Amino acid sequence: MANSNSIDIDMTPMIDIVFQLITFFMVVINFDAADADERVRMAISDLARPPKVKPTGELVLQMGFDRVTNRGGQTRKDGPFLFYSGEKITVQSFDRVFRPMLDREFQIEKLKGNLDSDGKTRTPVVIRADAECPTGDVQKLIQVCQQAGYEKFALKAMQPE
Amino acid sequence: MKLKKASSGPEKIPIDMTPMIDCVFQLIIFFMLTLKIRANEGDFNINMPLGAGVGQSAELPPIKVRLEANPDGTLRSVGLGRQSLGNDARAFGLLNQEVLGLVGRPGAAFSKDIEVEIDADYELHYQHVVSAMTACTGRLDPKTKEPIRFVEKIKFAPPRPKKPE
Q1: What is the pLDDT of residues A81-107, one digit of tens each?
Q2: Cβ contacts (< 8 Å) between B40 and chain A: which residues?
Q3: Nearest in space to B92 (alpha carbons), one of B35, B135, B39, B141
Q4: From the CB of residue B94, how many other CB atoms can be counted at a distance below 10 Å?
Q5: How many CB atoms lie within 10 A of CB A81?
Q6: Domain extent listing, chain A
Q7: Can you tell me the distance from the alpha carbon of B78 to that of A71, in angstroms, rounded to the nearest whole number?
Q8: Are the beta carbons of A148 and B135 closer than 8 angstroms?
Q9: Rounded to an integer, what distance in angstroms lies between the CA atom of residue B93 and that of residue A138?
Q10: What average pLDDT does the segment B132-147 reach?
Q11: Arch. (CATH architecture) of A36-155
């Protein structure tokens, strides 16, 4: 018990503020691997705006480089690769490695009933491609998705900071 | 028998807040250090059914934008139809003006039917394609800083073959 000389400090306002701060950071923080992925440095566009209505389902594909910075501060990059399902897939092996994965995704869409009357899926493919990727490689990625039954694409870009 | 003297009110039990405050500050420091403020991402929506070739999907012929690349992937030239617009940031500004000239005014009735077809070299860095899409689809309102879109539909021409190194 406090003796008669001690001064009681009311901690309630401070604890209130501190909890508000924690809540703010918890809400704002984003652990989403798609956003935090440094391998994909996207192009910047003034007109890029987040979609007003977020689609219920989307297939996110990330195309970028493995960047390694040495002690001299020089950055070496390998790729481009498609980073999907924990694998690094080269453009040359899209048909052999990535296409079966896409076909599996398409079967899941079919089971969920997400197909249109023409047998194409309504799920959009979100492509997050690095600004330095060759355009032809991005187009090849789109082609593989088209062949698997996807025809809606959203190409991501960053808003200027 | 000695009776206990009734207390005047409930006895205050002191709670040691120190461990909780320690934990809470640790949590705040963790969240502050892991927080990354990143710019928002935005979309360019394109609808590309398989087999929709050049000029098949729209009644109006598409506006053709040609992007040529140097062997290292940098931009060599931006073309609109047969007109060359240059190879720097000003070229995309010109492209924006030209497309707006073709559309007439933002929000025109037929602007929803107008389609832009981007035909880029294989090696071209993707950032230039994004710049071309930005230049073709609209501009920022100087007052509100909100985008004014004048073309909704964008598609890619079939990919060009990779040039031998």
Answers
A1: 999 988 899 999 999 999 999 999 999
A2: 48-50, 158-159
A3: B135
A4: 16
A5: 21
A6: 36-155
A7: 39
A8: no
A9: 24
A10: 86
A11: 2-Layer Sandwich (3.30)
- Phi-psi region at A79: left, alpha or beta (left = phi > 0; alpha = psi -120 to 50): left
Q: List B77's β-bridge partners, or say none.
A: B68
Among the residue ranges B9-13, B127-131, B133-137, B149-153, the one predicted with the least confidence is B9-13
CA nearest A50: which of B155, B141, B38, B36?
B38
Q: Rounded to an integer, what is the distance from CA A131 to the centroid of its chain?
A: 15
Question: For B138, phi and psi rounded to 5 degrees?
Answer: 170, -165
**A149's tokens:** 């039954």
Looking at residue A91, its pLDDT comes to 92
Residue A33 predicted with pLDDT over 70: no
Specify the DSSP class assigned to residue B32: H
| Collapsed DSSP state (helix, strand, coil) of residue B126 | helix
Place of tokens 């062997």: B71
Test the B interface: residue of A18, A32, A38, A45 with most B CBs within 10 Å: A45
Please identify among residues 74-93 of chain B the ones whose CB lies closer than 8 Å to any CB of chain A: none
B5 contact A CB<8A: no
Please state, in angstroms and rounded to a whole number, the distance separating the CA atoms of residues B31 and A84. 28
CATH topology of domain B63-156: Nucleotidyltransferase; domain 5 (3.30.420)
Domain residue extents for chain B = 63-156
Which of A96, A82, A89, A158 has the alpha carbon at shortest distance from A125?
A82
State the average pLDDT for chain B. 81
Would an 8 Å CB–CB cutoff place B130 in contact with chain A? Answer: yes
> pLDDT tens-digit profile of B31-56?
888 877 766 778 877 766 665 544 44
